[in-house]
Amino acid sequence: MKTSVATAYSTGTRLFHACLALAVISQLISSQFMQVPREGRSGNWVFEVHEYSGLFAGVMALGLWLVIITRIGGTDIGRLLPWFSADRRAAFWADTKAHWTIVRAFHLPQYRQASPFAAAIHGLGLLLITAMAATGTLYWLGNIAGSQDGLVIWLAINLHGLMANLVWAYLIGHAGMALIHHFTGGQSLRVMWATSPTTSSKEPSK
Ligand code: HEM
Ligand code: HEM
After folding, report:
1. If we measure between CA atoms, which residue out of 131, 182, 3, 206 comes closest to residue 139?
2. pLDDT per residue of the chain (206 residues) written in tens, 0 to 9
3. How far apart, in whole angstroms, are the C-alpha atoms of residue 89 and residue 92?
4. Distance separating alpha carbons of residues 115 and 181, to the nearest angstrom
5. How far is the centre of ligand 1, averaged over its atoms, from the C-alpha of 47 (Å)?
6. C-alpha 163 – ligand 2 centre gap (Å)
7. Which terminus of the chain has a smaller tally of CB atoms within 10 A, N or C?
8. CA of 124, nearest ligand number
9. Which atom of ligand 1 is nearest to the CA of 111?
10. Four-CA torsion 41, 43, 45, 46, nearest 10 degrees
11. Taking a C-beta distance cutoff of 8 angstroms, is the pair 190, 196 a contact?
């Protein structure tokens, strides 16, 4: 018989996470097919999709930050951003070393919800996506204002292109680990992707 297991994440966290993840996936896919307007050449419709779903991703990233800051349960913001506390930094480095030792021995790290390493990577991922949306939006606003040739806009869009590589790495690493933990019994994907607050994801141990 299956039991009903409460998800560790609030509805707000799961909703904004899902919208953000889907928007980022659509950004990465559209980036492969879009034609950027340049030197008299106009952009194609895929570029428009990239622009508007990027603006949407920005709103979802801000929404997720707002939920993280204001929610009562869930991962503490200090664990997502451990860089401002000596104790949290020490815990992060200790956990990073522990992960490295396990990986070096060709084993998979076991899932731990309280892992300082995993939480810090999630925080960096969210910061990265926020920076992608901010640089893209700056480019978009620059175009509206007619100052697309300005240095700030040039810097923003070049930074956008450089950070894009990290977004691929984050999505592959993060979604890959989520899938591995799901199929090796560490953590069900439903904990973050369930549409209801409770989910029947675990068989009770006999
Ligand atoms: C680039 C898009 C994504 C971003 C920015 C992102 C960001 C995050 C963040 C910030 C957290 C931590 C939430 C918290 O502790 O409050 C998280 C957790 C999680 N994400 Fe994502 N995510 C993305 C895509 C995905 C995808 C595609 C999957 C599924 C394949 C996924 C599965 C999960 C799961 C299962 C957790 C919970 C992990 C745990 O319990 O430790 N995420 N994600
Ligand atoms: C989370 C949000 C976003 C993600 C993950 C994302 C992702 C990407 C990726 C992967 C590329 C291709 C980079 C390359 O191969 O060189 C790209 C390029 C681009 N993106 Fe975004 N993007 C986001 C938001 C936006 C927004 C909001 C806008 C504008 C409204 C925008 C405008 C552009 C432009 C103009 C380029 C072409 C840059 C160039 O090569 O000159 N992006 N983006």
Report:
1. 131
2. 344 445 678 899 999 999 999 999 999 999 999 999 887 888 899 999 999 999 999 999 999 999 999 988 788 999 999 999 999 999 999 999 999 999 999 988 888 878 999 999 999 999 999 999 999 999 999 989 887 788 999 999 999 999 999 999 999 999 999 999 999 888 899 989 988 766 544 433 33
3. 5
4. 14
5. 26
6. 9
7. C
8. 1
9. 41
10. 130
11. no
**At the topology level of CATH, where does 3-189 sit?**
Fumarate Reductase Cytochrome B subunit (1.20.950)
Compute the distance from residue 193 Cα to the ligand 1 centre, in Å: 9
Can you give the residue ranges of every domain in the chain?
A: 3-189
Residue with CA at minimum distance from ligand 2 atom 6: 27
Shortest-distance Cα residue to atom 32 of ligand 2: 136
132, 144, 162: residue to mutate for ligand 2 pocket, most atoms within 8 A of CB: 132
State the Cα–Cα distance between residues 45 and 149, nearest whole angstrom: 23
Q: Residue type for 178, please?
A: A
Instruction: Provide DSSP, 46-108.
Output: HHHHHHHHHHHHHHHHHHHHHHHHH-SSSS-HHHHSGGG-HHHHHHHHHHHHHHHHHHHTT-P
By the 10 Å C-beta count (0-12 exposed, 13-18 middle, 19+ buried), 32 is classed as exposed
